[in-house]
Design goal:
Strands 10-11-7-12-6-13-14-17 form an eight-stranded mixed beta sheet, sandwiched between helices. Strands 1-2-3 form a three-stranded mixed beta sheet, with helices on one face. The chain folds into two domains: 88 residues, 2-Layer Sandwich (GMP Synthetase, Chain A, domain 3), CATH 3.30.300; 247 residues, Rossmann fold, CATH 3.40.50. The relative contact order is 0.12. With 382 residues, the protein is of the alpha/beta class. The protein binds adenosine-5'-triphosphate and magnesium ion.
């Protein structure tokens, strides 16, 4: 008996396009099956790029689902690049014209108007978390990446926007070595460990010093929010550049529901600098939600805890800002090694002590729920 398209579609119902993260069936990517000689079944699948970087993963997911449904003794998958016309159709399915750039918002830096994005919509369910710190090197990016994976492991849809124009490092930490694919004019964030990622690093070469400031930075952030298919995110994490500057200002405009997490190391100097970035966020009316203390201690071979960078800075800062200390992350060489190798510790050693600390952080973020944003302009009319 010939296998029909309906039977194939039913069997493949749970198979997702890996970077759009929606079922192939829903996206209309399954073609008419070919019942070949000798009981062989060939299933054509439309793909957004040819060659497809994640071809093997997609093929094996499809084959596994077909085998599970006992559809034929010999299955084969044929990947076929979509035509330009089909890509436009898919783009319109992902982002209906009415959702896109029809609305504009005022730009706080230039006089030009900016384009609104999905995260500004009143009904948006996405919590936007800006991970900031006063100074560099305290562990913002490692925290962003491992927190993102911890949230994804809890079943949330998570994206990272690496907005650190001075020291983008998220793709490397996630082991992403290629640029985003395009569905017509819509950018598709590469996915690693269940986390979508867009980075300034995709748009500049390593040798180019990034001197984006003010309006240019604002424009770039706008593009990362409007021209990217982020899907239905539960969390969007932003790795912010160190300091108090322009990105926070643009976030206030384009991501008005952003919540800020501050990363600090335990010593008083780091804590004072972190405090300045926290005050800046407050001036922009971005709610501070908590402090993360990184490199809190190191456990030696003798099993003793060594407080290499002093003690208590995270708690002092949290108390001072009137927010909770969400987690203390120990100093372990595996965090650095995981970052360098593109396999974060949360993925490679999920049961380790430090991964449990990231998990605690994810649970704290989850359980405190979104911030209530008070905006003086939103008054109830009397
Ligand atoms: N808890 C930790 N234990 C061990 N190494 C860590 C820890 N946290 C961060 N590191 C390492 O310290 C270095 C700096 O961390 P990271 O890049 O996360 O900081 P950052 O604040 O994002 O820095 P930058 O300002 O350069 O962007 C990295 O090599 C990272 O792997
Ligand atoms: Mg960084």
């Amino acid at each position: 008996m010939a296998v029909t398209k309906d039977e194939v579609s039913e069997a493949l119902r749970g198979v997702l396009e890996p970077e759009i993260r929606k079922p192939l069936v829903e996206l209309g990517l399954i073609g008419e099956p070919i019942n070949a000689w000798g009981g062989k079944l060939v299933v054509p699948i439309g793909v957004i790029a040819d060659p497809l970087p994640y071809e093997d993963a997609l093929k094996s997911a499809v084959l596994a689902a077909l085998a599970k449904a006992n559809l034929a003794s010999k299955n084969d998958v044929e990947l076929r690049g979509l035509s330009d016309k089909e890509l436009v159709k898919l783009r319109n399915l992902l982002r209906p014209a009415s959702d896109s750039d029809s609305q504009t918002v005022a730009n706080p830096i230039g006089h030009e108007q900016g384009r609104s994005n999905q995260f500004m919509q009143p009904g948006s369910k996405t919590r936007v978390l800006g991970v900031s710190s006063g100074k560099g090197g305290v562990g913002k990016s490692s925290t962003t990446v491992n927190l993102a994976i911890a949230l994804a492991k809890k079943g949330y849809e998570v994206g990272i926007l690496d907005a650190d124009v001075y020291g983008f490092s998220v793709p490397k930490m996630l082991g992403i070595t290629r640029n985003p694919l395009l569905v017509d004019d819509l950018m598709l964030p590469p996915v690693a460990y269940g986390v979508r990622c867009i980075s300034v690093g995709f748009f500049v070469s390593d040798e180019t010093p990034v001197i984006w400031r003010g309006p240019m930075l604002h424009k770039a952030l706008e593009q990362f929010l409007v021209d990217v298919y982020w899907g239905d995110l539960d969390f969007l994490l932003l790795d912010m550049p160190p300091g108090t500057g322009d990105v926070a200002l643009s976030m206030g405009q384009y991501l008005p529901k952003s919540e800020i997490l501050v990363v600090t190391t335990p010593q008083p100097a780091a804590q004072r600098v972190a405090q300045r970035s926290a005050y800046a966020a407050r001036q922009l009316k971005l709610p501070l939600r908590g402090v993360i203390e990184n490199m809190s201690w190191f456990v030696g071979d003798d099993g003793k805890k060594y407080m290499l960078f002093g003690e208590g800075g995270g708690k002092v800062l949290a108390d001072d800002l009137g927010v909770p200390l969400l987690a203390q992350i120990p100093l372990v060489p595996e965090i650095r090694a995981g970052g360098d190798d593109g396999v974060p510790i949360m993925a490679s050693e999920p049961e380790s002590e430090v991964s449990k600390a990231y998990d605690t952080l994810a649970t704290a973020v989850e359980s405190m729920g979104p911030a209530r944003v008070y905006r003086s302009e939103l008054k109830v009319k009397s």
